[in-house]
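Retro notes - structure team

What went well: the batch runner handled both jobs without manual restarts.
What didn't: labels got mixed up in the shared folder, which is why I'm recording both outputs here explicitly, each with its sequence directly above its tokens.

Job 1
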Amino acid sequence: MTRKDVRLWAIGGIILTPELKTGIDFVPWLQLSIAIGMLWRPTMVWSAVGIVILYGLGIREYGLYHMLDYPIFLTSAAYIAMTGLGRTWRVRPMDVLRWGAAITLMWASVEKWAYPQWTYPLFVIHPDMGFGFSPQFYMCAAGFVEFSLAFAMLWTPLLRRSAAVILMAMFIGAIGPFGKIDAIGHAPIIVVLLAVAVDHHSRGLSRPVALAPVVYCAALAGTIAFYYGMRVLLFGAAATPA
């Protein structure tokens, strides 16, 4: 997060990711203070508070529903605070970070099904992106692949590390066609995926493989229900994506 905060401070006009633009003058200086606070353990908790403040500004500027795309920033703040305080509350900071990345990607995969039209213009600019498939099929398949890999990050150590490597390769591979803005926007999740990929911790994580399909279906149904349910709750049934 430190290097990203410095980059955002240098660019200016951005809250947490290039998509979230703002004209608030103090935001770049808050980002710089977050980066500086990360240099010492005692001040890391204040950096975490700063990230939460930025997330709150994002809600004010763009609304709660839009900011549900970015739970990884809140879990990153929790990771930083727990690391700075040296306390775990029976939960590893790394596990909090991993769950945040997984939930972020699971939510994003449902968005691919709800709003595939948002990505259709990219197929015109990058026609090879679809590997010869129709945009409709590609978006549907991409959503299932992303959701499945994100879910795997919540399961056994081997699955989560393998999924993290595959997802990291996908995000890094997208930097070439889409440029430095994409690199800045995806930098936090790439860093988290790298951390997950090298995390060897396995104690207390025994999960019967036979339960995976059942839990997967429950997670898929729950994420879809929450996505559309929040849409209805915040905007009404008429605004529910088709």
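Job 2
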Amino acid sequence: MWLRSLLIWIFLALPVMASPIPQDSTQMLLVTSGDWRSTIAALQRYERKGGGWQPVGESWPVTLGKGGLGWGEGLAPVAEGPRKQEGDGRAPAGVYRIGESYGYSPRPPVGTQVAYRPVSSQDRCVDDVKAPQYNQIVTVGPSQPVTWSSAEQMRRDDELYRWVIVVGHNSNPPIPGKGSCIFLHVWAGPTSPTAGCTAMAKNNLEQLLGWLRPESRPVLVQLPESSYRSLRPGWGLP
């Protein structure tokens, strides 16, 4: 009897691993890669129904950063594995809210409900760790002169940023040096890694824009396969 009581006490004393996925989130993008260094992964959409996650459609191939994955600053606590830093070429592992969208066209793809803004040659995403605008998308002009040493053009000369969805990494507030300008965007090809974003075929990104719903509080979950398997029960992942 005493042994049973002891086991119950130990069980109750153990810390409970709360899921970092908000209870009001009913849409999820789950990206899993072979390991921390892999630059190729698979994306599966899910919707939460009846208390469980149900897959939506087929999985899509995506490409990750040239450095693979590294724990970033989001909703999930940092666990075992590499940590993302500015300029390391890693895409952020963890759980992240999905934000607004940008693109070259005056209007987004038909069916898009997330906030959208067309970009011009004056729009930048600041990656200068010393700048007050670090990890922010700003428009250069009289009220916003260039005061930083480094920033990404949001209106590029190629199609990679034709459509962009912001990933809420290191944004609340930004921590200098922890990584910036993380997006879902169009890939250069199925074997071409990114500088730290998650990229996919243009038609898949357009389909994603038509599926996401702001009221569903969508999140992005990115993990290497080993971490996914170990965290799956505690995080309530599909």
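One thing worth noting from job 2: The helical segments are 2-13, 202-211, 225-235.
We'll revisit the folder naming next retro.
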